[in-house]
Amino acid sequence: MMTLTQDKAVIMDAAIYLARHRTSRGETSIEELQELHHRLLLENTFVADVGRSLLALGDLFNDGPSQWPKFRFYHPQPDTPSQTLEDMDEPLKSLLRFHLKIDLAASIMTNKPPSMKIPLSSGRSLFNASLSPIETYDSCLLCLFECLRLIHYELIPLFTGQSNMQSAAPESYSLKWAAWSRLWTSCM
Questions:
Q1: Whole-number Cα distances in Å, 74 to 55, 164, 168, 174
Q2: Where are the alpha helices (DSSP H) in the chain?
Q3: Model confidence pLDDT, tens digit, residues 4-44
Q4: In angstroms, rounded to a whole number, what is the distance separating the alpha carbons of residues 126 and 186?
Q5: Which of 33, 46, 34 is nearest to 4 (CA)?
Q6: What is the pTM assigned to this prediction?
Q7: How far is the C-alpha of 56 from the C-alpha of 130, rounded, in Å?
Q8: Coil vs helix vs strand at 65
Q9: What 3-state class would DSSP assign to 39?
Q10: Mean pLDDT score across all residues of the chain
């Protein structure tokens, strides 16, 4: 992060805005925030994503966990290619890991699906000896994320009869349970 702030003034300004927003209890200038977002539009995708991720954290420090469901989570720009968390570079990866943990907590607290739209991992095993501790940690976070998405988007509609007619075929039930079984197996 420090290297990026030295190279890109907009990232330094976003970090300063975040720190000032935190210490002023959220009483910072809307104009300054809009100006930072405008400047981020002029940057490459990586720098813009880092900046937007930093700015989104501003409200987090001044609100308690009950406000986390209102958090503005990171969403990749629609015109950019999707990257999995494991393929992202630092400091964006660390920022998104933080966003992901907040989204998971908000999902569990509200019994609603996670709202982040992040591509999941490549499906490698969670307990592979070649993984570093942080890679194992990321894999576990993504597995929990995938479990919550499966529960809310597939299993709950299936149990409550809200599943669409197209997926009511017997093979769709087995596919949903196969997905759950695969997730459960990776967690074991």
A1: 10, 29, 33, 33
A2: 2-7, 9-23, 30-41, 45-56, 92-110, 133-150, 156-160, 170-187
A3: 999 999 999 999 998 888 777 666 788 988 999 999 999 99
A4: 6
A5: 46
A6: 0.78
A7: 34
A8: helix
A9: helix
A10: 80
